[in-house]
Amino acid sequence: NAAVFGVQCFDAGIEALDSEHCRVRIRWRGHDHAQVIPFPFTVSEQDAICRAHERPTSTLGIECAKPMEAIGRRLFEMFGGCLATACANAGENEAGLWIRLWLEESGRIADLPWEMLHDGTQFLLIGQSISLSRCISKEGLVQKPEPLRRILVTISSPRGLRRNNGITERNLLSGALGLLKIQDTLQIDIASDGSRYARRRASSDPS
């Protein structure tokens, strides 16, 4: 990984291996390190942590600071000494540090309050030089293409009325549905007349 706009990136990917263990992989300043460690909390402990973290801010008082600090320190320890070194380096060089957590395969611990990371002195995100984000891979952003939708326009001209122009009608409809046309999600077909034979021909056209 490399610096982004002068901010050093600390990438940490967490992969759940089973109900008790996970693999933590860290990439920082050309180093690539992985280790298998136990989950920091049991299922019941994590449920209690998540419930407490979801409480409205107005109900959080000084009595919650110590428990959250303890939680943050245990999360911090998951990264061994790597994160401590990265934070110290950022402070010494007066540079920023961007902690990027890759949690797609982390299982239940993705729900933990990672924003509470604590180095034993303070919560990391209190300072202005350290930021944190939860990331997903580019593959997770790829969406399956929407199937092409077809609209069949049948032009009918009853007796005594002006004959409609198929091309004009199609252009008017295309203009009204311009956004869908731009996204290539819509195909507009024009039948020469409104008979059921014209509709059958259009619906059987494989193009």
Written overview of the protein:
The chain has 207 residues and is of the alpha/beta class. It contains seven helices and seven strands. A five-stranded mixed beta sheet has the order 3-2-1-4-5, with helices on one face. Strands 6-7 form a two-stranded parallel ribbon. A hairpin with a 4-residue loop joins β1 (7-16) and β2. The model has no long low-confidence stretch (mean pLDDT 76).
Entry summary:
With 207 residues, the chain is α/β, with parallel strands linked by helices.
Estimate percent helicity.
25-40%
Q: State the end-to-end CA separation.
A: 46 Å
Please tally the helical runs, counting DSSP H or I stretches of 4 or more residues.
Answer: 7
Strand order of the largest sheet: 3-2-1-4-5
Structural class comes to alpha/beta
Query: What coarse outline follows from CA principal-axis ratios?
Result: elongated
The portion of residues forming beta strands comes to 15-25%
Rounded to the nearest angstrom, the radius of gyration is 29 Å
Strand tally, please? 7
Return residue spans where pLDDT drops below 50 for at least 5 consecutive residues: none
Overall pLDDT, averaged?
76
Order of helices and strands: EEEHHHEEHEHHEH
Which characteristics define this entry?
single chain; about 210 residues; alpha/beta; 7 helices
Secondary structure layout:
Elements: E1 7-16, E2 21-28, E3 31-38, H1 43-53, H2 65-77, H3 82-92, E4 96-102, E5 130-135, H4 138-141, E6 149-154, H5 166-176, H6 178-182, E7 186-191, H7 196-203
Parallel strand pairs: 1-4, 4-5, 6-7
Antiparallel strand pairs: 1-2, 2-3
